[in-house]
């Protein structure tokens, strides 16, 4: 019988993590696999292990006193899954809820197609379950632009066909663990911390000859932006400038690594226009911190600076 590790990363989000866990407990099992849920407390101000253990004693919880970023948090769970002999790792955002059959449908599809290394479901908005958040993804190699199919559209049969996609969202992706154990794949790139780490991993999967599938019959629901958007509107808006920095810098990292030589002229020209407009936008909106974040991201992206990511963490990873 196959084993699936379901991995959630929490950072000050216990109020959304608990409904997610409740929905996971209602998963329908086909009899072909077992699951174990792993929650990584990624430096939450108030540790969450006791809250989770009081409700679900069978859930594995790891705790770091430092916020190591989404990619590193996921890697804590993936490493545990590999060391414990799990066949699959499911990365799932903690601000989601799931349909009872979502995992069975992802698993069955991957078992039937051994060349598929990663699969993702259809993702709808939590606040309006008739609206699409993600129905698979696209990548325009000529301009170096990633995009999401169906965002904000009504959930119709338009996106109900199983297709091959260039990258899967880290919001929910089922990964074959033999990519790590047999084919020598590295885990998520921790230098990215958050944003584009899922695209970077997906591109590596495809580069090795595996496919990525979008399975629309598998459905989950996403709050979206829970951990990065503030409830308070400031001069800089709701999104923290560091989020702007990571998004802008990691975009450059990705394109430098994966752009083929023949698309470099159009990619560079498009990015110059894009970043110029972004700078003008923050100038006009009088958002100096975000302006500085973009300027720094360009410098760090071009120079391959990982300084903000290469932090030393004093606290160990502890299984609670």
Describe the protein in words.
This protein is of the alpha/beta class. It has two domains: 2-227, Alpha-Beta Complex (Spore Coat Polysaccharide Biosynthesis Protein SpsA, Chain A), CATH 3.90.550.60; 229-303. It is built from nine helices and 15 strands. It has helices at residues 14-24, 49-55, 70-83, 102-112, 178-181, 197-207, 241-258, 264-284, 288-303; strands at residues 2-10, 33-42, 60-64, 88-92, 96-98, 116-125, 132-134, 137-140, 145-148, 163-164, 172-176, 211-222, 229-234, 237-239, 318-319. Strands 1, 2, 3, 4, 5, 6, 7, 10, 11, 12 and 15 form an eleven-stranded mixed beta sheet that branches. A two-stranded antiparallel sheet has the order 8-9. A two-stranded antiparallel ribbon has the order 13-14. It is globular, with a radius of gyration of 19 Å.
């Amino acid at each position: 019988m196959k084993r699936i590790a379901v991995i959630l990363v929490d950072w000050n989000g216990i109020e959304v993590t608990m409904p997610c866990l409740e929905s996971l407990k209602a998963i329908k099992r086909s009899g072909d696999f077992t699951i174990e849920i792993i929650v990584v407390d990624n430096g939450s101000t108030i540790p969450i292990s006791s809250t989770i253990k009081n409700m679900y004693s069978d859930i594995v919880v790891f705790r770091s006193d430092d916020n190591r970023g989404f990619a590193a948090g996921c890697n804590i769970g993936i490493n545990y899954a590999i060391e414990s002999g799990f066949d699959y790792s499911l990365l799932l955002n903690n601000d989601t809820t799931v349909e009872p059959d979502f995992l069975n449908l992802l698993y069955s599809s991957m078992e039937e197609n051994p060349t598929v290394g990663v699969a993702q479901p259809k993702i709808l908005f939590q606040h309006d379950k008739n609206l699409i958040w993600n129905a698979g993804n696209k990548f325009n190699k000529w301009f170096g632009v990633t995009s999401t199919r169906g965002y904000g559209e009504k959930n119709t049969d338009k996106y109900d066909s199983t297709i091959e996609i260039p990258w899967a969202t880290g919001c929910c992706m089922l990964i074959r663990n033999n990519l790590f154990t047999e084919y020598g794949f590295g885990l998520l790139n921790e230098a990215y911390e958050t944003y584009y780490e899922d695209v970077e991993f997906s591109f590596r999967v495809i580069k090795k000859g595996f496919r990525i599938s979008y399975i629309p019959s598998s459905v989950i629901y996403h709050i979206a932006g829970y951990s990065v958007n503030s409830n308070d509107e400031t001069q800089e808006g709701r999104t923290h400038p560091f989020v702007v920095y990571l998004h802008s810098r990691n975009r450059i990292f990705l394109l430098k690594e994966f752009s083929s030589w023949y698309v470099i002229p159009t990619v560079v020209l498009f990015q110059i226009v894009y970043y110029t407009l972004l700078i003008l936008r923050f100038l006009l909106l009088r958002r100096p911190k975000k302006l500085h974040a973009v300027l720094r991201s360009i410098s760090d992206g071009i120079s391959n600076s990982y300084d903000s990511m290469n932090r030393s963490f004093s606290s160990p990873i502890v299984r609670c």
